Amino acid sequence: MKTLSIAIGLLAALPLAGCISFGATPPDTLMKLEATTQVPVGQVQNSATAKSIVIGVPVTPQSLATQRVPVATSATSVAYVKDAQWTEPPSRLFARVVSDTVSARTGRVVLSPVQAVAEANDDLEGELRTFGLDAATREAVVTFDGALQRAGQPATEKRRFEARVPVAAIDAASAGPALNQAANQVASEVADWIGR
């Protein structure tokens, strides 16, 4: 009889299991980046007739190894924007914007590392140093240190890019559009540096 009452108690508790959450509540919407310059749908690209390039996902500091949006509150402290979250880590989103922009602006064929094994192509790596908001200046800031290895060249070129876009407030509604604009500005400058 005692075993039966325990079993009934456990069965009664089962519907509640779906209501218990041990993780943070996700925001109502997730943010993403979108390249403002893209190759038209249906356009064919061929690495036999155009230069190719591999664009790697940049490395990031630990503060960016998350889907949250960091806010520099001072030179030595970081907080995160409430209810602001990316669909995936910002380094991957940024790499995709750079890839789309480079392809559209330069006519280059952007290859994955696997596709590039048999190709003589350029290679862009780098570090996404800043990708968030600055509370003191009320700006969205994107800083990227690019390292470009051109095919057939022994030296590696390095260059720092930075874009700052004013934000009306340090909140989720302002963060997404401003960071998208700043990321696209940096991507355009990177594409111009790489060239045709």
TrEMBL record:
Transmembrane segments: none annotated. InterPro entries: ABC_trans_aux. It comes from the Bacteria. The keyword Signal applies. Residues 38-191 form the ABC-type transport auxiliary lipoprotein component domain. Residues 1-23 form the signal peptide. Keywords: Signal. This is Membrane integrity-associated transporter subunit PqiC.
